[in-house]
User: Fold this.
Amino acid sequence: MAELQTIDHMPQVPICVAEPAPARPEVLPQPVGAGPLWRSLLFPHRGQRALEIGGDDSTLFAFLREAGVRIERRAEHPGPAAVADLDLVLEHRREGRTPVRPVRIRSFLAPGGRWVVALEGNGWIGLAGRRILRRAMREGFETIETYYAYPSLHSPRILVPLDRPEPFLYFLRLAVGVHAPRQRLLALGARCLCALRLHRMVLPNLIMVARRTK
Assistant:
């Protein structure tokens, strides 16, 4: 009968453990479904109430009605007794067309509500995006997020977060590359703009989501 034998000397086999790869900055994929770009930011559901400012000929937020959101229009300037009861304030702004906004957007929104601005430029948005962000900060919105819809607002494939430089630089590396001299120059310029917090100004569109949390 065979006997079990203890093994005193094991051959030493080197073990290689791969170092964990650094996490890639977040680039949000476009989910599937009607109005996919906006659905990923707004999570619409039946019973929500929204106010749309301007954009009479815009269909950018049309999918919200299909999702059961009640979109309405009311007086542009709320009175002193305005009730903060809306879930969403929506705005599609094109270059050269500044809608008449209420005195205070925040006064329309219930806690948890969002002011969503889709800003579309002719080439790039320039200073218009900075003005919108400054207004949101002045009104005291607790959270302000910005995104770039690539390649356009109407036919987006991905949303690129813009509030930190890493996702934008990662997206630029994927979209443009850094091999040819011209590509390396573009990447260097993008890094400089990010360092100066000016990269939003040179994009063809900007999506701002300002949230009232309390």
